[in-house]
Design goal:
Number of helices: 12
Distance between the termini: 20 Å
Largest sheet: 7 strands, mixed
Structural class: alpha/beta
Bound molecules: flavin-adenine dinucleotide
Shape: globular
Radius of gyration: 20 Å
Strand content: 25-35%
Length: about 375
Amino acid sequence: MSKRVLISGASIAGPALAHCLAGYGFEVAVVERAPHLRPGGQAVDIRGVGKDVIRRIGLDAQIRAAMTDTKGMGVVDRDGIEIDRIMADEHGGDGAVAEIEILRGELAKVFYEATQDRVEYRFGDHITSLTETSAGMDVGFASGHREVFDMVIGADGLNSGVRSLAFEAPDCIRDLGLLVALATVPNKLGLDNWWLVHTDGVRTTGIRSVRGNAEAITHLGFPGDRSDFDRGDVAGQKALVRKRMGDMGWETPWLLDQLDTAKDFYFDSISQVYLPSWSTGRVALLGDAAYCPAATSGQGTNLAIIGAYVLAGELAKADGDHTIAFPAYERVLRDFVEGNQKMGADNARSFLEDSEHRMEHMDFDEMNTIMNNIDLPHYA
Ligand SMILES: Cc1cc2nc3c(=O)[nH]c(=O)nc-3n(C[C@H](O)[C@H](O)[C@H](O)COP(=O)(O)OP(=O)(O)OC[C@H]3O[C@@H](n4cnc5c(N)ncnc54)[C@H](O)[C@@H]3O)c2cc1C
């Protein structure tokens, strides 16, 4: 009988794992707290061995078809004068702008569409209890439903609900001292597949055209941590962004004016997750829930996809025996993950240093070495 796996979270890690597990014949359900697949977010990058993985799992063509067409990035001063320029094809396509760059929402859609016929998605619900019994994991849901699964995987992000329920890890999130807001705005500057960034030293305003230049996404980054905002209070988050970024020059004032009417708004801390173990009993964590490397590493999406590939591969290799597969998954990935987390923390520190020219000092060759520093197993 095939093993039944419940995955919590339908962003990147969850649907990527669902795709790999369904391919091996596991019976998979995904529960997502949001009422539908969440749109929004910036462009995310697939780099280094992440590129191998999307080929191996058969989604290279679909992902490339949904890519952005960003040609590069200009760094501008307060008056909009360009002081630096980075093109997408620099550093073999693994520089500041990656060769495979895709909006996070579009990438989630690719994984969702590749799995929706083979995987049961349950939107608008979440896990409220996890009890290990001799029959498996007895799972209680907010909807009142109960069900037993062989395994539960928490792919539910930085503030993972599965992690809170199954792990004793109250201090596992480390803030790196930055907050970031993202929103879709009009492409008022007429950017042509282009990305502009302005920094006053520690704060950053960026805007890039997306979706065939029909609109743009702004990102507003500034110092702060999770104690500065309430996760449930979106109006308060927008007010905080306006307060901290209000005196920032360049195009910032009109971008701040867009926040109230933007069709999407995403706000979070730049943080990392450190756990001594990524599994306990029949429960394992994946992606940001287990080992968030922070957006400053540029590797959150890659680690989620690579992790999904390894976790599914190890489960298939162990014929569904989680007692063998979960430790093996961690053995394959841990050093690689820790290298990427160190890079994310180092980059965050440099972002907090007062420099308009920080891009010039970023060592993309060293970063590419870290992003490729894993001997990725081939799974049948
Ligand atoms: C809307 C959104 C926008 C983002 N934008 C960016 C960006 O611009 N740049 C960037 O670097 N990273 C962004 N991220 C984070 C990025 O997707 C991750 O760092 C990376 O891709 C790893 O993904 P993940 O699937 O592990 O976690 P996440 O992408 O964080 O996904 C977690 C998923 O779990 C769901 N969830 C949370 N709690 C529960 C629960 N209790 N039960 C069920 N489901 C739950 C969430 O709604 C979400 O769909 C964004 C994430 C989201 C959700």
